[in-house]
Structures are given as structure tokens and as C-alpha cells.
């Protein structure tokens, strides 16, 4: 007897299994990102009939491997505001060069508005010495050892923007060498010699 025709998605190579495999890839890609909720604020919009209340959420997203981004989302409900902020942050990821994948290549400062931050690279085992929104940025970025301090305002938005302004000024030895037309060994060797002279002076 002739077997009845197989329906869609019932065969060994049906479309149903293909959709299942696609969803698995999407789930894995979503799990690669680290999401940090920095803060939620209640906002109000004045309309003709009175005030319309909502919520704003600021979220930091990173892959833990040198890419990080942040965004602000607004909605009538908190979960929707967080979802909007997360989607925007994933579209604005920036890459930051890291030394040995754990700290910054050099000390750097950043400023935005009244916010001013100072960040210094640290030896292995130091950990993340930072507080508030700056810690969320470093954890999402994948930094393991760093010493940071906020010198200006404590506003979360200005602190995060000042932190990103500082991270954008970070350069790796390869970038500096390409800009100056030199070899990476010359840049790194000069940095090691300078650090050795500094230690002798402090001793």
C-alpha cells in the first residue's frame, strides 16, 4: 500500500524541526549578553487631561568580552521600559580594548556634564573596585581588575556617560603603534621601562 503523504514539519527534514533549531540559536545568542539594570525612575508627562505617569529604565548590556552598551527606555510599565532599553543597548554596543582580557591598558579619565570619573588599571587579583553604575558597566564589559572613582555628580545617567566617554579614550598598543608608524614592541617596551623607573623612584 502507498504510504500517506507526510505533512509539513512531520518528516525527518520537515520545517518544524528547522524552526526548532533556529529558536535554539536565538536562545544561545540571547544568553551571550550580560544585562545590568542600573536604575528605574518614575516620570510624568503633562497632557490636556492632567498627568500621564510612566517609568524610565537605564540598562547596560555587554558580552563580557570587550563589548558594552547602554540605553534608556520609557514605557507605561516597568517590564516594557526594561525591554525597550535592552533592545536599544544591544544596537549601540561599542568595543573597548582590554589588556589580557581583564583590565585597561592605561589610566584614563572621562567627563560628561557634571560627571567626572577616574579609572586606573590594576594587577591581577585586585577585582572591581567601583561602585554604583560604574560597576555595572565593568561587569558587562568583562573587566576583572580595575580601580575607579567618581569625582563629580552621583547621577546615574551622567556617571554612565562619563564612564563611556573614558572608555572611548582607551587605546591598545597596536592602535598607538599604527598611529605613530612604529612597532608594537617599541610601544610596549617603552611602557615597561617607564613603569620600572617609576618603581625605583618610589623606592
Write the layout of secondary structure elements.
Layout: H1 15-31, E1 34-47, E2 50-62, E3 67-75, H2 78-91, E4 94-95, E5 108-112, E6 115-121, E7 128-129, H3 133-141, E8 146-150, H4 156-167, H5 173-180, H6 184-202
Parallel strand pairs: 7-8
Antiparallel strand pairs: 1-2, 2-3, 3-4, 5-6, 6-8
Helix pairs in contact: 5-6
Description:
This protein has 203 residues and is of the alpha+beta class. It contains 6 helices and 8 strands, in the order αβββαββββαβααα. It has helices at residues 15-31, 78-91, 133-141, 156-167, 173-180, 184-202; strands at residues 34-47, 50-62, 67-75, 94-95, 108-112, 115-121, 128-129, 146-150. The strands form 2 sheets. It has a 4-stranded antiparallel sheet with strand order 1-2-3-4. Strands 5-6-8-7 form a 4-stranded mixed sheet. The longest helix has 19 residues, at 184-202. The model is unreliable at 24-29 (pLDDT under 50).
Shape: elongated
| Strands side by side in the biggest sheet | 1-2-3-4
In total, the number of strands is 8
Radius of gyration: 24 Å
| Distance from first to last alpha carbon | 94 Å
Uncertain segments of ≥5 residues (pLDDT<50)?
24-29
Q: Which band does the percent of strand residues land in?
A: 25-35%
How many strands, which pairing sense, and closed or not: the largest β-sheet? 4 strands, antiparallel
Structural class: alpha+beta
- Percentage of residues assigned to helices: 25-40%
- The ordered string of helix (H) and strand (E) elements is HEEEHEEEEHEHHH
Mean pLDDT: 80
Q: Number of DSSP helices?
A: 6
